[in-house]
Amino acid sequence: MISAEVSKAPTISPLAIRERIGSIRTAEIISVLKGQITGLHISRAFSIEIAEEIAANFIRNPGLKQRKDGVPGHYIGASHYRKDAATYFAEAENARPFVEALLGNLVDPVRGLFDALKRDLHNQGIELRLTRSEHRQANICRAFCWSGTGMYALEPHDDVAQVVCAGNDYEIPAVANNTVVALNLYVSMPDEGGDLRIWSHKPTSVDRKSQGVETTGYPYSKAYLEAVPFHDLRLKAGDIALIDGGFIHGVTQPSTKGKRRLLLNSFFGFARPDLVLWWT
Ligand SMILES: O=C(O)CCC(=O)C(=O)O
Ligand SMILES: [Fe+2]
């Protein structure tokens, strides 16, 4: 009998990447939301002074923790990854003062982007809000510093498996039917390396199952990605990158020279034609 389990080469999906210098525009963000752009990289999107203040707030923040869920890194904030909704929303609430301390009373780019996008979507009859449970809600962002020691500081993964498998007590699984956008704001970067590598492949649930990453989307093996073309976003402090988190991506190993690699991260996407949810 012929087995249906024969593993096939990953399907190549073309990347639509836009990279430029300047201010980020809500129309471009909406193009990523609608799946028209796979990767949007805006260089010098916010000031180095703001970036340096956030980096200083990270280092002295009493909420700084080491991840203990199999992904090497340090963080401030909450991640829904591998957590039920009750645990996630409780963690989000506990971490809120620390996330607030990170952004302080700055006129910061995360809240600025959220507010501008909310205004533009509202004008189109679409609500943007933080995802919530009965009494609690997500935070606007979290901060990460990856510490993988191999070829990648953060191994190749997708951000959608964790959304598909979040469970019915979350609002977010509906977003997995649309584009899950990952928003990254780079606060501090090493002199070299630490690129965001995006592969030309958007795995299906069948692909994930074949790779043993059905519920996590993490990590994809070197062998699986061997023949898949990729594009590296070369990032500097003050840059913003938005990607379709359904495409496999990872972070190349930073050089030991220069500063630590630190970013603020959130996810958002359409849960319904009239509702965009935002979470971490
Ligand atoms: O650090 C980066 O540039 C990407 C982060 C990322 O992919 C994630 O948090 O899921
Ligand atoms: Fe990711």
Radius of gyration: 18 Å
Total strand count, please?
Answer: 14
Query: How would you characterize the largest beta sheet?
Result: 10 strands, mixed
- What number of domains? 1
Architecture per CATH nomenclature, i.e. the level-2 architecture: Sandwich
**Number of distinct helices:** 7
| Small molecules bound | 2-oxoglutaric acid, fe (ii) ion
**CATH structural class:** Mainly Beta
What's the CATH H-level superfamily name? q2cbj1_9rhob like domain
Report low-confidence residues grouped into runs of 5 or more. Answer: 1-5
Q: Helix share of residues?
A: 10-25%
- Strand % is 25-35%
What is the CATH fold-level name?
Jelly Rolls
Distance between the termini: 46 Å
Please characterize this protein's 3D structure.
The protein has 280 residues and is α+β, with helices and mostly antiparallel strands. It has a single domain (17-279), classed as Jelly Rolls (Sandwich), CATH 2.60.120.620. Helix content is 24%, strand content 28%. The protein is built from 7 helices and 14 strands. It has helices at residues 26-33, 48-59, 85-103, 109-123, 161-164, 205-210, 222-225; strands at residues 17-21, 39-43, 65-66, 73-76, 127-130, 142-146, 152-157, 181-190, 196-199, 230-233, 240-244, 249-252, 258-272, 275-279. The strands form 2 sheets. Strands 1, 2, 3, 4, 5, 6, 8, 11, 13 and 14 form a 10-stranded mixed beta sheet that branches. A hairpin with a 2-residue loop joins strand 13 and strand 14. Helix 1 (26-33) crosses helix 4 (109-123). The longest helix is centred in the middle third of the chain and has 19 residues, at 85-103. The chain is globular, with a radius of gyration of 18 Å. The protein starts with 16 loop residues before the first strand and ends with a strand. Mean pLDDT is 95; it is low at 1-5. 2-oxoglutaric acid binds at residues 144, 154, 159, 182, 184, 196, 249, 251, 263, 265.
